[in-house]
Design brief:
- The chain is of the alpha+beta class.
- It has nine helices and 19 strands.
- The chain has helices at about 20-35, 40-50, 55-70, 85-105, 200-205, 240-245, 265-290, 295, 310-320; strands at about 110, 125-130, 135-140, 145-150, 155, 175, 180, 195, 215, 230, 235, 255-260, 265, 300-305, 310, 330-340, 345-355, 360-375, 375-385.
- The two termini are about 25 Å apart.
Length: about 375
């Protein structure tokens, strides 16, 4: 698993989720055979699946149904189970989620609208759709997203849009991988590894949201997967799937965008949005260099917040600082732009900033949140990333 920085040199990738898709293809084939009353063939297929994945609970449930069907007609998945009704319901939901992935085709020539622009060092991005129990992996293809693979996932027991500690919800927003925890550093409950993400982010804190410990992680060694709604807020994958995506995750760089219903758009729309926001950021940079404080402040919303500051205190500080400037130079690099799920008018823009003036020189990684309001993009948050 990556511990950060750049992985091996980028190249065109073959689909990574062959094992995951093979499992689901075998499972879907079996379910369709049951529907067609081809029970003997279904039994052979489910037993073949269990030889490969012996701890796949859903497959065991279906095998039990098929054994019972030799004596009594099947009515639904879980007819033969001795498990609790909640366990059976959970496994039925998993079957439904996996089946839908194969019955509903991936959007053709569409990409998630959130992946507006990668920065050059970001090699991959993750997009999670909690409503479909699906995680999508995209590669940075010269700044634009290219689909690589997708995987079944579990998420929060109480749904999406986490607000507070202990609400058992998965957060919605734009986050970044903050660490890589190998199996040796975590309990068996978290499976083959874990990747904490940056919840709560800057925007979450501004909205009064709290909580901690949201991870991408695996499953205990005695199971293959968990039901769609099974975690306390984390995004949970089968261990083989986590191992595959883990090779592509860069600590401090890889974005993890979580939505309860991913919107897919034409890449040309994404390009237009990229161009517009890049122009806005460039105008902000130029107005900062002009040392014209009024022009510079026009880029900020009256609802602007920074750590410990509102718009008025920010304005006072900038006017005081600029009074001592005779010249300013600002260079920006490694600019990324990501849309915010649940708020189509909000963008997260992160970049490396190299600032110099007649009396100061510094470098930092900065993050801004831009909001479209009254036909204009304005900065509503700014701070160190």
């Amino acid at each position: 698993m990556a511990m950060g920085g750049k992985p091996a040199a980028q190249k065109r990738e073959a689909p990574q989720n062959q094992g995951s898709i093979d499992l689901e293809a075998m499972l879907v084939k079996t379910l369709l055979e049951v529907r067609q009353n081809r029970l003997d063939i279904a039994m052979k297929d489910i037993e073949a699946l269990l030889k490969i994945y012996p701890n796949f609970k859903l497959a065991h449930l279906i095998r039990g149904d098929l054994l019972m069907a030799r004596a009594h007609p099947l009515s639904t998945i879980g007819s033969a189970a001795g498990a609790s009704q909640q366990q059976i319901s959970d496994l039925r939901e998993e079957a439904r989620a996996r089946l839908l992935r194969h019955l509903e085709q991936m959007p053709v020539n569409r990409v998630p609208k959130y992946l507006v622009q990668f920065q050059p060092e970001q090699h991959h991005a993750i997009v999670v759709d909690t409503s479909k129990s699906r995680l999508y992996l995209f590669q940075n293809d010269n700044g634009t997203p290219r689909y690589v693979a997708d995987y079944y996932v579990s998420s929060g027991k109480a749904g999406a849009e986490k607000i507070k500690e202990g609400d058992q919800k998965t957060p919605m927003g734009v986050y970044f991988v903050t660490a890589s925890l190998p199996k040796t550093q975590i309990s068996d409950f978290y499976g083959s590894g874990a990747f904490p993400i940056s919840y709560p982010n800057e925007w979450d804190r501004q909205q009064g949201k709290n909580g901690h410990g949201i991870w991408l992680h695996g499953v205990p060694s005695d199971t293959y997967s968990r039901p769609p709604r099974a975690s306390n807020g984390c995004v949970v994958l089968a261990n083989p799937d986590l191992d595959k995506i883990g090779k592509n995750l860069q600590v401090g760089l890889t974005p993890v965008v979580i939505s309860d219903n991913v919107d897919w758009i034409d890449p040309r729309e994404l390009a237009a949005q990229r161009s517009e926001l890049s122009r806005r950021v460039e105008n902000w940079r130029l107005d900062w260099e002009s040392v014209n404080t009024d022009k510079y402040l026009q880029h900020y919303s009256r609802n602007f917040r920074a750590p410990g500051q509102n718009f008025h205190s920010w304005e006072d500080q900038k006017r005081q600082v600029n009074a001592g400037k005779t010249w300013v130079k600002v260079k920006l690099s490694n600019i990324s732009i990501f849309g915010y799920p649940g708020n189509e008018n909000l963008m997260v823009i992160t970049f490396d900033q190299d600032y110099s003036s007649n009396n100061l020189r510094n470098q930092m990684k900065k993050r801004q949140y831009w909001k479209f309001d009254s036909n204009e993009w304005k900065i509503v948050y700014e701070g160190a990333a």
